[in-house]
Amino acid sequence: MLIGGRRWGGKVVSRTGGHPWLGVVARGAVPPGVLRQCAAAGSALALMAGGCAATQAVLAPPVSAASSQGGTAAATVTLTASAASVSFGTPVTLTATMTPADASGSVTFTDLLSTGPQSGQAVTLGTAALSGGTAALTASLPAFGTNAVTATYSGDATYAPGTSTPVGVQVNAYSGEVVISQFRLSGPDGANDQYVELYNTGAAVSLAGFTLAAGSGASVTVPDSAPVLPADQTYLIAGDGYSLSASPDQSAANLGSDGLRVTAPDGTVVDAVGPAGAPAGFFSGTPLPAFDETSPGPADQYAWVRIEVAGVPHDSGSNAADFTLVSTTGGVVGGVKSALGSPSPRASVSPSQTNGAVQSVLLDPATPAPDAPNLFYTKGSPGLLTVERTITNTSTDDLTTAEIHITSLSEANGAPEPGVASQPAQPAALRIIDPAAATSTVTVGGNPVTVQNLSVDAPAGGSPGGGVGSTLSVPLPAGGLVPGASVNIAFTFAVDNGGRYWFGYDVDVLTEAAGAGASVAHGSAAALPALGVSPPQAYSASGSLPATSRALRNAGASGVVP
Known about the structure:
- By secondary structure, this protein is an all-beta fold.
- About 0% of the residues lie in helices and about 40% in strands.
- It has a seven-stranded mixed β-sheet.
- Strand 43 and strand 44 form a beta hairpin.
- The chain starts with a strand and ends in a 17-residue tail after the last strand.
């Protein structure tokens, strides 16, 4: 191949628009002034910084054509990045410097991806105008591994277009980026009645190439067809004997046993959860109690559920501190005593956490939290506690589905109260139960209002009730809950033991984006575009229940029994 009057080893492999030649030569044999690109045999081109790892180098000529404005003088584009290596989701500032500095116009920054479903494809990160000979863009790079970024100058009336040498920025996954939020590796329908829910705690991420492995040797890789998962949304992988209602995003014959490990495409282990006896690397910190996965005992629906604190999955690095075992009976499962609650797996198209867009307030803001109509308590065996709230759609889209997802509760054999320095000496024991009637009417500000009394969703039942992990569907008006509209709701609890109580919940929704005409999960391309990040609602109420027959007084995080 003849380039610049000199013959270089190799051959022409293609001729494409804008490029008079594209050839292959031995690694290192690069003509002066020619850009070098690397390509593995049979794959799309993959730009790399600092040399070619393959035995062949693909050469692309420098751009020499005149710009659309007629400029032909040579200009050099030099690209720098603010960091050579970052954690996923961390922005990088890319700066293009022109020589000569009087070049005008704009610079477009492009990333050729090396991992994920778009591997080998160029993604435009953005365009910035030149000022004083430089153009800068701050962006989060979209793929794990080496992101090879180039800066392309538009050209002007004097100078021809040009492209920089690629600059590589390594993007790394980090521990806790994607976590297991609930799981089980056997179930009432047998050894394959399994599921694992993955929760994205960080920036929107493509799960393609993530691997879920078990200590027993089973392994599942998320396919390239997997969706980009927004923050606070989940992806569900299930075994072929899965018996719950939420349709999984991905199925496998068997998910294995003896602990789980989640690995990102760059090889970073982002989470590991397992019981005592699991192999090293398949649990974190103190493992979960030893659990008989082959014989779960009663035909309970059950799961290990990660505790939430202030709307965020708790990730202390210790499985024993981060998870609680729940079942629909609160009995012994797999040799471990459970708390009353429900497995509630969610897929990428399931209702997802939107506390920032669906706000929860007292039913009557003018009345103290422990007083009617915000709270009622009736003595009995058990006692009856009713807590009433109003949820409001503060997003810009109609809500088509809404459900309450219980994330913490003072209950028998339950997890500790989250987010407090010391635990109460006498925690109350509560169960969420079905109400006596679907609706009730109370007076707020002198006017009657209707309250939707929520019932516990399957697989839990009204008796014995629900707990952590349980969901309660919220009845919405026909056509959904429009922006600015509200619905009044009530929680009904059986109180088996008095004392300090707490409960926390997320509001999970699906929306119908304006003009979309279809329900989509929060965080997908068409859903809730104006949500942003808001402090989640950690608790609906907390206080003290009477150990005797006195009326309940709830004073928020602490209470006084009169």
